[in-house]
Structure formats: structure tokens, C-alpha cells
């Protein structure tokens, strides 16, 4: 049990943003050092001290939050020094999330990007909560919504926003897909195989489903994702939606965007689909139920698959 039983990741981030706003310090990128220093003066961290983040000296993790064994009120944040600055920011925000939401139940948290997938269920849950906190803190929904209203979504816009908010292109892409009213899906490929896909709410309502190639899923023939001669397509190209999706009628189109990370092994595909009427979910003809169940629980909980 925690001192913050009624608190969740979204509410905790919202309270901090409100406090920053009330003191005229709600600016972008969110000042995590300020947040760390103000927490002990707030109900979310009263009585504790969080030391300035230090470099991790072991390789296995992206970040850690550790209680000082000799002083139970003192906590230290450790971050992978080799990570990119925006990734370090996300990790620090993630560790602050553990501090606020989980510190009564554990005295150390060793975090890596994969624990959201591979840990035991309890571990996955707290990792997702910490990611969700970080996401809500670093990319405040209201500020993001006003920036994307009426704008054409492409990786130029997402890249600009990622810079302004001090987050990775991937984190911002996930957030944009969460907030857009368009039918959209973000697909992340790792070494040629699908690692996750993230549908927008209207894509879910209209049951957008990817055409399966097998398990694990590979890029589909005829898509930019499968075309190794195209590394970047930040504006997107139009194609028939059914090239990607079993769910779409013949006339529906989509715009596919592609971002390839340095090294070429990781690819983000962003699909923006034409609108279609909502429809009920049918249990046959779509992707396998297990995938849907797992993924939808994931989305329903409002968590991010990766950071
Ligand atoms: Zn963690």
C-alpha cells in the first residue's frame, strides 16, 4: 500500500504540471531538475530528498531509483550515460514516477526498456505506470493538443514537437497517435520484425487491422516499410489501405510515413488512414485474438509500449 493510493500516473503528472503553472514555471521542455527539487516540498514527496541524477555504473539498465540504505529518506536516480539526451530525460522522468507512485513498496528499481515486455506482471505494471507518468509529464496533453489542432501530421511536425518538448521522435509519435482524431497507427519494426503497433482511438473504433504475414510479423510487400531503398519518407506517400490492412474497403486510402533510425535496424512506420464509419469488432477475419487481447489491455490501461 502506498501513501498515494488514490493516485495514478496521469493524476500525479497533472498535479505537478499544475504546481509548475501556478508558480509561472510551466515551460517547455519541462524542467525535470526543478520537478525533482520541488517534490520534497509537495504532498507527493514530503520528507524525502532526491539526489541529483548520477551516471549508472553498470550496463544492464537504462535507469535506476535507489533508496540510500543508510538514510531511508534519501533517494538517488541513476541514468545510462551513453543514452541520448532525450532518452535520459525520459528515464529521469520515469524514475521520478517510481519515486512518486511506488516508493513505499520497494527500495530499489532497476529499469530497462524491455521490462515493459519481459518482466513478471507486477513488474510490467509498475514499469508501464512509470512510463505513463513520464509521458504525461514531459508531453502535457493540453499543450500538445493545441499544437496539433488543424495541422497535417507528418514526421516534420512530429520531429519539431519532439525537439520542443525534449523527447524522442518515437515518444512523440506515440503521443500524437494517442491525441489525433484521425484513424492512425504507429508501427515499430526492430531488425525487420514488428515489435509493437499503436492504433489511435478512431483506428480502434473502426477495427483497423494489419494484414498478417506470420509470427513474427514482417513488413508487407508493396509497403514503404518493406522497401529497403527508402530510408526516410517524412511526408508520406498515398496508397490503398488494403495493402496494409485486412480491415479496409477497396476504395479507402492511407498515407504511409517512414523513419529509419541510424544503423537501419529500427524503423517507425506511421499510417494515416482515410476516415470510415465505426464498426463492431468481429472475431474472425482479423488478427488473432490473443494479439488483440494483449494489445488492447495495453492500450486500455493507457500505457506506453516503449519509451
Ligand atoms: Zn522503471
What overall form do the CA principal axes indicate? elongated
Bound molecules: zinc ion
Determine the N-to-C terminus distance.
Answer: 27 Å
| β-strand amount | 15-25%
Number of contiguous helices: 10
Profile the largest sheet. 5 strands, mixed
Mean pLDDT, all residues: 88
The run of helices and strands is: HHEEEEHEHHHHHEEHEEEH
Strand tally: 10
Gyration radius over CA: 20 Å
| Helix content class | 25-40%
Structural class: alpha+beta
Low-confidence stretches: 282-307
In total, the number of domains comes to: 2
Can you tell me about this structure?
This protein has 307 residues and is α+β, with helices and mostly antiparallel strands. It has two domains: 9-138, Arc Repressor Mutant, subunit A (Orthogonal Bundle), CATH 1.10.10; 155-300. The protein contains ten helices and ten strands. It has helices at 9-22, 32-38, 85-102, 115-118, 121-138, 141-148, 155-165, 169-179, 201-205, 289-300; strands at 49-50, 54-55, 63-68, 71-79, 108-111, 183-190, 193-199, 233-240, 253-260, 266-273. The strands form two sheets. Strands 1, 2, 3, 4 and 5 form a five-stranded mixed β-sheet that branches. Helix 3 packs across helix 5 (121-138). It starts with 8 loop residues before the first helix and ends in a 7-residue tail after the last helix. The chain binds zinc ion. Residues 94, 98, 109, 111, 127, 130 line the site of zinc ion. Zinc ion is lined by residues 94, 98, 109, 111, 127, 130.
Amino acid at each position: 500500500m502506498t501513501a498515494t493510493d488514490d493516485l495514478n500516473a496521469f493524476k500525479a503528472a497533472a498535479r505537478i504540471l499544475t504546481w509548475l503553472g501556478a508558480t509561472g514555471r510551466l515551460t517547455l521542455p519541462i524542467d525535470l531538475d526543478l520537478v525533482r527539487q520541488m517534490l520534497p516540498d509537495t504532498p507527493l514527496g514530503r520528507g524525502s530528498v532526491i539526489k541529483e541524477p548520477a551516471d549508472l555504473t553498470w550496463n544492464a539498465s537504462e535507469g535506476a531509483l535507489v533508496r540510500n540504505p543508510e538514510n531511508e529518506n534519501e533517494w538517488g536516480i541513476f541514468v545510462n550515460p551513453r543514452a541520448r539526451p532525450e532518452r535520459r530525460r525520459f528515464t529521469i522522468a520515469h524514475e521520478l514516477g517510481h519515486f512518486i507512485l511506488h516508493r513505499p513498496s520497494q527500495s530499489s528499481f532497476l529499469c530497462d526498456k524491455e521490462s515493459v515486455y519481459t518482466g513478471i506482471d507486477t513488474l510490467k505494471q509498475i514499469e508501464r505506470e512509470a512510463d505513463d507518468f513520464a509521458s504525461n509529464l514531459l508531453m502535457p496533453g493540453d499543450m500538445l493538443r493545441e499544437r496539433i489542432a488543424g495541422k497535417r501530421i507528418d514526421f516534420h511536425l512530429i520531429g519539431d514537437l519532439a525537439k520542443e518538448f525534449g523527447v524522442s521522435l518515437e515518444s512523440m509519435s506515440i503521443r500524437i497517435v494517442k491525441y489525433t482524431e484521425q484513424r492512425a497507427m504507429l508501427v515499430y519494426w526492430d531488425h525487420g520484425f514488428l515489435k509493437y503497433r499503436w492504433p489511435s482511438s478512431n483506428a480502434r473504433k473502426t477495427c483497423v487491422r494489419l494484414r498478417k504475414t506470420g509470427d513474427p510479423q514482417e513488413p508487407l510487400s508493396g509497403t514503404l516499410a518493406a522497401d529497403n531503398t527508402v530510408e526516410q519518407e517524412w511526408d508520406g506517400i498515398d496508397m490503398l489501405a488494403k495493402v496494409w490492412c485486412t480491415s479496409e474497403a477497396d476504395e479507402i486510402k492511407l498515407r504511409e510515413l517512414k523513419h529509419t533510425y541510424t544503423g537501419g535496424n529500427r524503423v517507425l512506420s506511421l499510417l494515416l488512414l482515410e476516415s470510415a464509419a465505426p464498426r463492431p469488432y468481429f472475431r474472425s477475419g482479423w488478427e488473432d485474438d490473443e494479439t488483440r487481447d494483449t494489445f488492447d489491455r495495453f492500450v486500455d490501461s493507457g500505457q506506453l509500449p516503449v519509451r
